[in-house]
């Protein structure tokens, strides 16, 4: 993980309005969210795992699943999920279980971010700042 200081850090937005600005830019709300915090993810690449620019946020007024929720953006960071080669740890599961658990677990949930993605991340932060500020 590499933190990416930004002018958007600490800024508050309506969650709906934030989604309307970020989704057309390629961001999606990450799967791992709770009622008081979550992430917008921008997938930079998917070679040898996945490289993301992640914009964490927390609810400051309401819960994320409620209408009119206001969120505060936290410090963005680059994240790399590196997958191991070969079979998944759960390769001996049944077909029924496989239908629900079809994705391989990352070997390193917080792998080293390759250098070429750091500059891309900086550029994406600038574009995001321009869109939001």
Structure report:
With 133 residues, the chain is α+β, with helices and mostly antiparallel strands. The chain is built from 3 helices and 7 strands, in the order ββαβββββαα. Strands 1, 2, 3, 4, 5, 6 and 7 form a 7-stranded antiparallel sheet that branches. The longest helix has 18 residues, at 115-132. The two termini are 25 Å apart. Mean pLDDT is 84; it is low at 97-104.
Structural class: alpha+beta
Weakly predicted, low-confidence segments: 97-104
SSE ordering: EEHEEEEEHH
Mean pLDDT: 84
| Main beta sheet strand tally, sense and closure | 7 strands, antiparallel
Count of separate DSSP helical elements: 3
Compute the gyration radius: what is it?
17 Å
Total strands: the figure is: 7
Helix content: 10-25%
Strand content: 25-35%
Task: Provide the fold topology.
Elements: E1 2-3, E2 12-14, H1 15-22, E3 28-29, E4 37-45, E5 50-61, E6 70-73, E7 77-81, H2 95-100, H3 115-132
Antiparallel strand pairs: 1-7, 2-6, 3-4, 4-5, 5-6, 5-7
List keywords for this structure.
seven-stranded antiparallel beta sheet; 28% strand; globular; 3 helices; single chain; alpha+beta; 133 residues; 7 strands
Question: In short, what is this structure?
Answer:
By secondary structure, this protein is α+β, with helices and mostly antiparallel strands.
């Amino acid at each position: 993980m590499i933190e990416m200081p930004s002018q958007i850090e600490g800024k508050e937005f309506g969650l709906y309005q934030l989604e309307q600005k970020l989704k057309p830019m390629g961001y999606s709300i990450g799967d791992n969210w709770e009622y008081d915090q979550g992430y917008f993810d921008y997938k930079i690449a998917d070679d040898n795992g996945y490289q993301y620019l992640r914009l964490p946020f927390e609810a400051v007024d309401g819960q994320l699943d409620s209408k009119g929720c206001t969120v505060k953006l936290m410090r963005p960071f680059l994240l790399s999920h590196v997958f191991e080669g070969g079979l998944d740890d759960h390769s001996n599961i049944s077909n029924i279980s496989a239908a629900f658990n079809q994705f391989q677990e990352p070997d390193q949930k917080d792998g080293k971010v390759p250098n070429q993605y750091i500059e891309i991340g900086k550029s994406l932060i600038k574009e995001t700042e321009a869109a939001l500020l």
